[in-house]
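Trying the structure run again after the queue cleared.
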Amino acid sequence: MFDWMIVGAGFAGSVLAERIASQRNESVLVMDTRDHIGGNAHDYKDEAGILVHRYGPHIFHTNAASVVDYLSQFTGWRPYEHRVLANVDGMLLPIPINLDTVNRLYGLDLDSAGMEAFLATRREAIDNIQTSEDVVVSTVGRDLYEKFFQGYTRKQWGLDPSQLSRIVTARIPTRTNRDDRYFTDTFQKMPSDGYTAMFANILDHPNIRLELGQKWNPARDRPRARRLIFTGPIDEYFDHRFGALPYRSLRFAHETLDVEWAQPVATINYPQTEEYTRITEYKHLTGQTHPKTSLTYEYPTNEGDPYYPIPRPENQALYKQYRTVAEGLSDVWFVGRLGAYQYLNMDQVIGQALATFARINSDRAPTAMVRAAE
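Done. Tokens:
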């Protein structure tokens, strides 16, 4: 009998396992369907000896000092600022859209004030911004929307931006300067030895036992622990009693080339052409020196592991049905992107896990944990 069982060895499950084991001196069984730790952030050396991310690129960035302080107990860091180009009209242009994007695309020579005036003539006035399309056309106009956002979003989500919540494209800024960094967070670094090495350090505690390659079986596994933290899909826990929550998945194609470099930046997006959404070259992220290079192509799909909760009002309404039932449980916590049915970045998941542990440690009622996980 363990004090805790945690389903999922990604960020949410691993952070909570470490906190419970080290701060409460309680026993924790961590179970994961996959045969490795680290969840979607898992990395490994491929046959060529190049460190790659099995489930697509994971770029660490945050403004939360508490998250950095926590992870820094388990990893060193290497500086890295992510840059992305979009293949648009046969050119590789900075994304998010900035001053150079507009100047090169339209053959202009604008300064920041000129770009603001240029965009002002193209924006569409929308009184009530509801969808992802509304966000973009009200910011940069329809032509830039169609070139950079519409096709990419259709591929990524299998839906037109007009069918998706505004939160999807609201995450992507538009800049009137030449800042070509994808993120502007105060902390932008990568784990010096990779994510898997960091997870191994997080989970290296005598109170933690790992069982990998084991699918959660409630009849068999729930009696093995007094309390449960579930980081898988919340609808799966309840056997889809209200219906399945929709998720978008990804298929990855990995490739190694006999050249030192294949791309000028880590990631190139393809909003207009190709079936894949983007190609990532990992040595840009890791700083590894190697005569060959490895790439990953991403193909969005409706089949496969759940990656992205689909942000539509009817899906949130369905999730709230599951959340209501979850709030009635006295010994189960739901945490993480799948447990809270939210599109969360890595640092947000870690922050959520740390906040959940603080509430567990204060002996507050489990119903508060469910709300905190949102």
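Residues 173 and 242 are 36 Å apart (CA to CA). Worth checking whether this holds up in the mutant runs.
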